[in-house]
Amino acid sequence: RFSQEFREVAGRWLASEASTHLLVFSMERRLPPNSELVRAVLRLFQEPVPRAALRRHERLSPHSARARVTIEWLHVRDDSSNRTSLVDSRLVSLHESGWKAFDVTEAVTFWQQLSRPREPLLLQVTVQREHLGPPASGAHKLVRFASQGPAGTGQGEPQLELHTLDLGAYGAQGDCDPEVPLTEATRCCRQEVYIDLRGMKWAENWVLEPPGFLAYECVGTCQQPPQPLPFKWPFLGPRQCVASETASLPVIVSMKEGGRPRPQVVSLPNMRVQKCSCSWDGAPVPRKLEP
Amino acid sequence: LSGEQIRGRLLQQLHLSEVPVLDEGDVGELVTPAHVMAQYVALLQRSHRARSRGK
User: Fold this and answer.
1) Does B7 contact chain A (CB < 8 Å)?
2) What is the pLDDT of residue B54?
3) pLDDT tops 60 at residue A142
4) Across the interface, which of B14, B19, B32 has its CB nearest the CB of A266?
5) Shortest alpha-carbon distance between residue B34 and chain A (Å)
6) pLDDT category of residue A15 using cuts at 50, 70 and 90
């Protein structure tokens, strides 16, 4: 508009896809440093369907009073192309209204994996038909989520709840102090363990390199968070001290080829512990963001 | 990580059912070729780089 060469072209809406909404959350400094994201919950306020509209719907589609609500994380790549990742989906009833909770932990986990400076967290909310194809039900057209509270009160606005644990208290402590003996009170740490391959009978004449290696192990206990947790997760056990990062170990072995031994390199994955962490037993392993 | 576990992982990676029987005499004179040693060192270095890079 500031160029003489440029002429504005007016457009008009021919169609509107009213059932897709984009929520934008500014996330910088929302997650405390040295903290672990435990759960992120998106709360949307489902507005009640007007009675007249509900009666009309029941007359036209007596068997379907539900719509599918899908939450996707939207990532705008550097080349401006979009990519969506499904994070939660559930059916909602036309007869219900009030706050609906969606698990968007995965979306925030993906967002955390972006390189800085990070874009805001973009969540795409889509309201679709429960079933595709005839007989078509218009239930999805009646589901409305509040976007702003009445008269700017903030009531009913979409909310993002972030539940975090302070790793200073609930995390591991890095490498163990070799001067301090291990007790039941030792906080989760990585301890040196040397594996001597030369001392193993089966490795004789077979394993040529290395003669041994530092494998490390995770020892100690993890502080448990206060009960009850602000959410319920099925099969969630206590926090345990486990290897969260590992490295492979290359080995040279002698293999017989044509009756003669020949050295060969083989890489064994997950042989050396790089990092120990406190993790929930039974918690889902976060997906890695793929390029 | 026990010796048995390491043995099991080696066999699995090499698609073997048991540890090959090798005579000490054959292996004693065995010299690791330079290209095999270079491959081994490269894998070692890659493994250590991954370590310094962190998560």
Assistant:
1) yes
2) 44
3) yes
4) B14
5) 11
6) very low
Backbone angles phi, psi at A86, to 5 degrees: -70, 130
Band (pLDDT 50/70/90 cuts) for residue A157 is: confident
Token pair for residue A120? 């805001």
What is the percentage of chain B residues whose pLDDT exceeds 70?
89
Interface of A with B (CB under 8 A): 193, 195, 197, 200, 202-209, 215, 217, 244-245, 247-256, 260-261, 263-268, 271-272, 274-275
- Among A278, A171, A271, A150, CA closest to B43: A271
Residue of chain A with shortest Cα separation from B5: A271
- The alpha carbon of residue A188 is apart from the nearest alpha carbon of chain B, in Å, by 18
The percent of residues in chain A predicted with pLDDT above 70, rounded, is 86
Q: Which band of pLDDT confidence, cut at 50, 70 and 90, is reported for residue A6?
A: low
Would you state the pLDDT for residue A11?
60
What residues of A are in contact with residue B40 (Cβ under 8 Å)? 209, 250, 252, 265
For residue A163, with 0-12 CB atoms within 10 Å meaning exposed, 13-18 middle and 19 or more buried, which class applies?
Answer: middle
Per the model's pLDDT, the better-predicted residue between A74 and A282 turns out to be A74
| SS (HEC) of chain A | CCCCCCCCCCCCCCCCCCCEEEEEECCCCCCCCCEEEEEEEEEEEECCCCHHHHHHHHHHCCCCCEEEEEEEEEEECCCCCEEEEEEEEEEEECCCCEEEEEECHHHHHHHHCCCCCCCCEEEEEEEEECCCCCCCCCHHHHCCECCCCHHHCCCCCCEEEEEEEEHHHHCCCCECCCCCCCCCCCECEEECCEEEHHHCHHHCCCEEECCEEECCEEECECCCCCCCCCCCCCCCCCEEEEEEEEEEEEEEEEEEECCEEEEEEEEEEEEEEEEEEEEECCCCCCCCCCC
State yes or no: pLDDT of A88 exceeds 50: yes
